[in-house]
Fold this protein.
Amino acid sequence: MANVKISPQKNGMTFEFHSDYKAVDDTVKMCVDYVHKQKINISDFDLSTVLHEVLANAVKHGNGNDPSKKVWCTVCMGEDLLHIDVKDEGDPLGKKKITKRNLDECKPHGMGVHIIEGLNFTFDVDLDTNSIKLTRAIEINTN
């Protein structure tokens, strides 16, 4: 496992790592395992796909693949919502253009927002905290 610092939060966990794709993979696995232990009704595929998309983008686009810069991913559960907050040390998001690609274009990239929304997550850019906030309705398994 890559060097990922884990800190408990109220109703969740924060995962902190330096920009590295191995750390992205390890963080995704740890986040999915954590959410699974909370008995939240969400598929591992949906959660890992969305987490990988936003964390890899934080490394690549946010931090410019600079291994000295960090990424933070906070996963919190509300009564009926899963919240994911991803922050990096890159330029403020207000200077970046986060857009949906035209689906008629044939390109090997640029599908992140479509993927996130297609898996029933809402997507919001928080310019005050320079972070991406994702939310999805959930149910807690009581079994």
In short: The chain has three helices and six strands. The beta strands are 4-9, 12-18, 70-77, 81-88, 122-126, 131-137.
